[in-house]
Design brief:
456 residues, mainly beta, 13-stranded antiparallel beta sheet, two-stranded antiparallel ribbon, 7 helices, globular
């Protein structure tokens, strides 16, 4: 059941979509930020049953053993043991706190899919300047063009008191993930028989929206830059993609370029959006599936349903541990449950329904957004017949070197094909994501720079 108390601040949003609700957050609700609500708009208090604890600030320092940026993260909760494990056999007991997609995974893989459930630890945290900006944004941020963009917000969650579905969606898209990131990671499409082939790339991203030295006026409609160079396999090595992600993609669509190492040419990639299939995902992930959901919200009507208590992946340090090999983690149908961790958390539920006349392979998407971070933990996606088709799952953890809550791994399950795709594997890499590198200027992410770097 939906938590009635959590709906008070969002009551006017129930059944409202982006096109017809642009009212500002009530001043009385904004005044609760940093008090009874966290700076991100989550409830500080525990739930009535005591199964979700009070938020007291989350992780505020790295655990013993973590010594340098880029080091694989030490599990601060390594001593925790599962409280219980959800299986197909006891599924009925826990259905009220699961998504339709999670239930479908139990039914699709009844003999192997499990969810170990641990003590809920509200580890979510962020820098104080991000908290301060989020509280400011609550009084100033506004949607543009029917929700296709937003303005008058910077350096924090734009709508910590969301009034409609598209504001909640923007909170996920514009959530904090540092300013500049560098990592080497792999992605795989796991076939029905469990076979897979790694595609490894060097990735860099610069989140202009979270540059402490910048301002909203200097964004120029750019939210972030993303650059990826393929390192292996040999047949793909040297290829690259560059993305300029815009805030309002209807006013100015996402700009993307691809570099072909064989031809040594940089070409525009205008179709890298919406439901364009991603080649490295073997057809299991669309362009806008990446990061659970991204890009322009304009093809869907977004409804803020309210809050629910759901068992979601949280504090998942084991799935990216250097002690876990890919062959042990990647099983037929899904990740090895022994390395996963689930906890009961409050999530915002947001439904996107395809607009009449709009084109997309998904007729409906249901998002489950962690209240403490606005990170989408689960997304259930439906086909043109209205049947559940794909389930996206983000295995969250706190990157306490920033700090922020972000995904350790993203998985994309096709229930009909019984295959799945995994992004951000780095267990067998010597290091993990590094947030400490000097922030480059905008010129570093220009197409000309892509050509120069690609020919090295």
């Amino acid at each position: 059941m939906l938590n009635k108390h959590t709906l008070i601040g969002a009551a006017i949003a129930l059944a409202l979509t982006a096109g017809n609700a642009l009212a500002a957050a009530p001043a009385a609700e904004v005044a609760k930020l940093g008090k009874s609500l966290t700076p991100f708009g989550a409830e500080k208090a525990a739930n009535a049953a005591g199964t979700i604890p009070e938020w007291t600030g989350g992780i505020t320092q790295a655990p013993a053993g973590y010594t340098k940026p880029g080091q694989h993260h030490v599990d601060p909760f390594a001593a925790d043991k599962p409280l219980f494990t959800i299986t197909k056999a006891n599924l009925e007991q826990y259905k009220a706190n699961l998504t339709a997609g999670q239930i479908a995974l139990f039914n699709t893989y009844p003999d192997t899919y499990q969810m170990p459930v641990y003590q809920t630890r509200r580890s979510g945290s962020a820098p104080q300047w991000v908290y301060d900006n989020s509280i400011k944004n609550a009084s100033t941020a506004k949607l543009l063009d029917g929700g296709n963009g937003f303005a008058d917000a910077y350096g924090g969650i734009p709508f910590p008191i969301p009034q409609n579905g598209v504001e909640a969606l923007w909170n996920h898209i514009a959530r904090y993930r540092g300013t500049y990131i560098v990592r080497r990671a792999s992605e795989v499409a796991v076939q029905r028989n469990g076979s897979y082939s790694l595609v490894t790339s060097q990735q860099e991203g610069m989140f202009k929206f979270y540059n402490p030295k910048g301002t909203a006026a200097e964004l120029n409609n750019i939210m972030f830059y993303y650059l990826s160079f393929t390192k292996s396999p040999a047949r793909l090595a040297g290829g690259a993609v560059l993305v300029h992600e815009t805030l309002d993609q209807v006013k100015e669509p996402r700009q993307a370029w691809g570099y072909n190492a064989g031809q040594r040419r940089v070409r525009r990639a205008p179709n890298l959006a919406y439901d364009t299939p991603i080649a490295a995902a073997d057809g299991l992930r669309t362009a806008d599936d990446t990061d659970m959901i991204n890009g322009s919200p304009d093809r869907y009507d977004w409804k803020l349903v309210g809050k629910k208590e759901i068992y979601i992946p949280y504090n998942n340090y084991k799935v990216t541990s250097p002690d876990v090999k890919y062959d042990d983690l990647l099983q037929v149908g899904h990740l090895n449950p022994a390395y996963t961790r689930h906890e009961l958390h409050r999530v915002w539920v947001v439904e996107g329904t395809l607009k009449a006349g709009a084109r997309h392979i998904y007729s409906k998407r249901t998002l489950f957004l962690d209240e403490d971070s606005w990170q989408a933990a689960v997304v259930d996606q439906y086909d043109g017949r209205g049947e559940l088709w794909r389930v996206s799952i983000a295995y969250l953890k706190n990157y306490y070197d920033l700090p922020t809550t972000w995904s350790a791994l993203d998985t994309f399950h096709d229930l009909q094909a019984r295959r799945y795709h995994v992004q951000n594997l780095d267990n067998e890499e010597p290091s993990t994501i590094d947030f400490s590198q000097p922030v480059p200027d905008d010129g570093y992410f220009k197409p000309a720079a892509l050509r120069r770097r690609g020919t090295r």
